[in-house]
Amino acid sequence: MKRFIVKRVAYAALSLFLLSLTIFLFVRLTGDPAVLLVEPGASKADLAAVHEQLGLDRPLWVQYGQFMSSLFRGDLGNSFYYRTPVLELYLSRLPYSLLLAAAAMAFSLLVGIPSGILAAVRVNRWWDSAGKIFALLGLSLPSFWVGLVMILFFSVYLGWLPSSGSGTVLHVIMPAFALGWYFAAAHMRLTRSSMLEVLGSEYVKLARLKGLPEALVISKHAFKNALIPVLTLAGINLVIMVNVAVVVETVFAWPGVGRLLYEGIAFRDFPVVQATVLLGGAMIVVVNFFVDILYAVIDPRIRYER
Amino acid sequence: MNGSRAASLTVAWRFASLRVEGFPWIPALILSTIAFVAIFANVLAPYNPEIGTLGDRFRPPAWQAGGSDAHLLGTDHVGRDVLSRLIFGARVSMVVGFTAVIVAGIIGTVLGIVSGYLGGWVDQVIMRVTDTWLALPALTFAIFLAAVVGPSEMNIVIILGAVYWTRYARVIRGEVLSLRERDFVRLAIVAGCSKKTIMRRHILPNVLNSAIVLGTLMLGVVIVTEAALSFLGVGVPPPKPAWGLMLADGKKGLMAGYWWLTVLPGVCIMLMVLSANLLGDWLRVKLDPQLRQL
Q: What is the pTM (predicted TM-score) of this model?
């Protein structure tokens, strides 16, 4: 187990290193980073000052060392627009993103798990086909369009829900639905295939042979085990939701991390864009690491595999 | 050159020998209609998609009160004809979608083959980079790249290629790992073929099927990403008629209830993505049973 953890830590560290390197290199190799890092409309003297400050005339690896050392000090630069440290800004938006992601997750699980089970129990019947169509639609409709159409219907025509902003429970409903839609389809697919696998296993056969009623076999024996992969995926998806919510948050003017990224683009506030992407990627690497460890704890076979 | 021609012939033959049974006719029809409209956009579109008449702002579609036959699907916030913009938007989506899928496919397939066949440290380096890039949320990564290089149609293709090659590389590498151990590859080594020749003439034709299936499935993803980027203002630059851009413009009339500006471009995106996905699903099952669980 110890060796496994050490190996995973090394992998995660390597991923974080490559992530920072990717972002660092893209900014430097596609043009003059000073142009991006200086406020729009800055003078020649300002540009020169940034060159000096970043040491852009020095070798790349020295620059990378500086970039990393300021990262470790938690210094991600200052926002041009808000004039505050980017990290502070990011952390102040994160709770909103987490709230939205949690609501979207609740919605996607409430829809995805029951419909997935139903599709598996009634495999190749009407319910299954309906489920397939739902999954296909969920995976094909762009989330921001779903959001826009919902605004049109529920805010403009019916006037039931607020079209943008945050503050009340009513504000969360539409963004959560638009964001959770895709994931509901993904969770449904996984629940279905996982449930089908469990229903074909020996212990479920035994439970049936014992003479248990089918409803009990499904709810008590199959359901629990079929849920494990779904909940794992849901854990990872929660983090992914925070990071893909850019468009939905923009549509609903939801003040989360995604909206921050959008503002970063709109105001040409490059430090904000860079930090948001860097932190989002790092978040995913860290969560993947913990999921790997958790898996190894639950299932010893994984530990000895590598 | 000879190798790639042989490869394309094998692929053509495989397509011809596909059984027509179960062919998704409707999605294929929709996609070819969109392709047709895209090709003949300048003939079909009644107006210039980039120039509007300010006096004709926010006209509803012809069948609604206040609409006229002059603008069948109405006009937008600067009086541009929505139908013409949708027609030219098909061209943007098609061109960006297909070239991005092909760019990503070429990068991913080449790296996947090299990584899988050569193994060793080359494999390690390529796969670590692939894993890291896969971990980045595609949309966020694309936005970052777009913010760095600036918006243009050409840049979008490069960005989408740079973000999505990883999916191909992973799958193709896995296939190459098993192909490498097959007898025909061993024979080629014994016969004295160079590594380059083996990769090009023996491995490449055998992974093309998977690359094509992946490409069809990626088409939908790429089109949605392009629309999202354009919607956020880092994609196709205005006043070009892209569907994502139209949705962004449509927001200006959303609260006033001008539904056609929001619903119509979205329906176009949906039809195209749905068709591509259905076609991809069918191809996957037909061409490559191993990919069924993708």
A: 0.83
| Reported ipTM exceeds the 0.90 cut | no
Name the amino acid, one letter, at B265.
P
Let me know the angle formed at the C-alpha of A231 by A246 and A178, rounded to the nearest 5 degrees: 30
Confidence label for A103 from pLDDT (cuts 50, 70 and 90): very high
- Predicted confidence at residue B21, as pLDDT, reads 60
Residue B82 touches chain A, beta carbons under 8 Å:
no
**Orientation of helix B153-179 relative to helix B204-232, angle to 10°:** 150
Q: CA triplet A29, A32, A37: central angle to 5 degrees?
A: 110
A285 contacts on B by Cβ (under 8 Å):
132, 135
Q: Report how far residue B33's alpha carbon sits from residue B27's, in angstroms, rounded to the nearest whole number.
A: 10
3-state secondary structure (DSSP) of residue A164: coil
Provide the shortest C-alpha distance from residue A205 to chain B (in Å).
Answer: 25
Q: What is the rounded distance in angstroms from the CA atom of residue A197 to the CA atom of residue A218? A: 12
- CB of B237 within 8 Å of any CB in chain A? no
Long-range contacts at B99-103 (CB < 8 A, ≥ 24 apart): B99/B157, B100/B156, B100/B157, B100/B160, B100/B161, B100/B164, B100/B222, B100/B226, B101/B164, B101/B215, B101/B218, B101/B219, B101/B222, B102/B215, B103/B157, B103/B158, B103/B160, B103/B161, B103/B165
The token pair at B201 is: 């003439």
Q: Tell me, what's the pLDDT at B1?
A: 41
B259 lies within 8 A of chain A by CB: yes
Length of chain B (residues): 294
Which one-letter DSSP state was computed for residue B240? S
Q: What are the angstrom distances between the C-alpha of B87 and each of B71, B73, B236, B250?
A: 13, 11, 16, 16
From CA B193, how far away is CA B185, in angstroms rounded? Answer: 9
Identify residue B230 by its one-letter amino acid code: S
Instruction: Name the 3-class secondary structure at A158.
Output: coil
pLDDT of residue A100: 92
Among B228, B250, B255, beta carbon nearest to A247: B228
Q: In the structure encoding, which two tokens stand for residue A146, read together?
A: 């779903």
Position B18 pLDDT exceeds 60 = no
Q: Which of A111, A299, A114, A117 is nearest to A199 (CA)?
A: A117
Whether pLDDT at A35 is above 60: yes
pLDDT averaged over every residue in chain B: 83
Distances (CA, A) of B120 to A4, A161, B124, B168, B176: 21, 58, 6, 20, 14
Distance CA B293, CA B211 (A): 15
pLDDT at position B52: 75
Cβ–Cβ < 8 Å for B287, B209? yes
pLDDT, mean of residues A239-254: 86
Considering just the CA atoms, what is the radius of gyration of chain B in Å?
22
Percent of chain B residues topping a pLDDT of 70: 90
Distant-in-sequence, close-in-space partners of B234: CB < 8 Å, separation ≥ 6 = A265, B143, B146, B147, B151
pLDDT attached to residue A224: 78
Phi, psi for residue B75 in degrees, rounded to 5? -130, 165
